[in-house]
Design a protein that fits this description.
6 helices
Length: about 110
């Protein structure tokens, strides 16, 4: 997760980190998670954002940067795609004990 904060962290850097080709990694990720590598990376970022929204007072822009997304409009769009809520509405709707499980939501 720590690497995902880096600007530009994506499939290419993950391949290098785990010493696999893009194709090998994609096949393994698809078998293990039923998602593409890039979608899985995005999902991990959104899960971390959910945690930060509920457990910190960071604003949404700070959370986006913290999870490795520099564009607030893009962050809001992918957050809504994965959770069905805007980051602001998610923070207001869920508490620490009623967290949405987005891995099993779709």
């Amino acid at each position: 997760m720590e690497n995902m904060k880096e600007e530009g962290f994506g499939v290419r850097k993950l391949c290098k980190l785990v010493s696999m080709s893009r194709t090998q990694l994609h096949i393994k990720m698809k078998l293990l998670t039923n998602r593409s590598t890039s979608h899985y990376i995005r999902l991990i970022r959104i899960e971390r954002a959910c945690q930060l929204l509920l457990e910190t007072n960071l604003n949404i822009t700070q959370i986006a940067v913290e999870v490795g997304v520099d564009s607030l409009p893009y962050f809001s769009r992918i957050f809504r795609t994965e959770t069905g809520f805007s980051p602001h509405n998610y923070r207001g709707k869920f508490d620490r004990n009623n967290r949405l499980n987005i891995r099993n939501n779709k």
